[in-house]
Amino acid sequence: MPQGDSQRARRGRKRMTSAQRREQLIVISRGLFAERGFDGTSVEEIASHAEVSKPVVYEHFGGKEGLYAVVVDREVRTLEAAIQEALETPGAGYREIIERGTLALLDYIDTCPDGFRIISRDAAVGSQSTSTSFASILSDITAHVEDIISVPLGRRGYDPALGRVFAQGLVGMVATAGQTWLDTREPDKEQLAAQLVNLVWNGLTRLRKDPVLVCRAKDRRPRHRTAPVTVRAQRAMLPEDSLG
Fold first, then answer.
1. Whole-number Å distance between alpha carbons of 86 and 6
2. Residue 38: which CATH number?
3. Rg of the Cα trace of the chain?
């Protein structure tokens, strides 16, 4: 393009305010970080996609690390707000809270896949301030879930301290399933949520107060006895109790 045409094209573009330019850089870098990771994305690429010079990126964020930290912080806040709202639904029972919390995470993954890729897979490669962002989110959710389930556990004669263990397992299961679902999208979102809640809820409502490992009971049997432990025998070793 002749120099005159180039100058006219630049003059024809709508000039952005500082806030608009900052937002543009955040949106562009978010997509690049999600696609290529922190190490695979350069300031040059970000500037090129935004059609600005590198100094503009440095002016707004101080560098790639600063921009990455802003992107991660925004995604963390978005996910935290969604989870908190779900877990604090007024008048909700225990199962409804579990359902809403599970759906909140899957909804975020569905609507913000780039953001979830960044905070769940790549946050550790960024600056120190963002290195534990996803772990921190899961820890906060776990603490909230622990508060919710420890009360009914104690009321039914279980050790309330088990609430932490159960909460960690519950949150970890949903988060791991969500990471897999991010790429496969199968089954559909609500079916996945229903199946996860099905597993969690039926596990919680059929807890045993004194569980034992069936495999250890089998290991202690005399070696000459090779018949498998029947389902009826397993049930006899594991008397049923219920949270419900």
1. 52
2. 1.10.357.10
3. 25
